[in-house]
Amino acid sequence: MADKLRTGVPADIVILTAALITKLADDGLVLRSSIADIGRVETALAVRAGDPPVSAKDATSLRAVLLAADAIFVPDIKASTAGIHVAKVLAELGIADDVAGRLKIFPNGATAMRHLAATNDRRPLGCTQSTEIISTQGVVLSGILPPGCDLATMYTAAVPTQAASAPQALRLIALLTSSDASELRSKAGFVSDVTS
Question: What is the pLDDT of residue 1?
Answer without folding.
Answer: 85
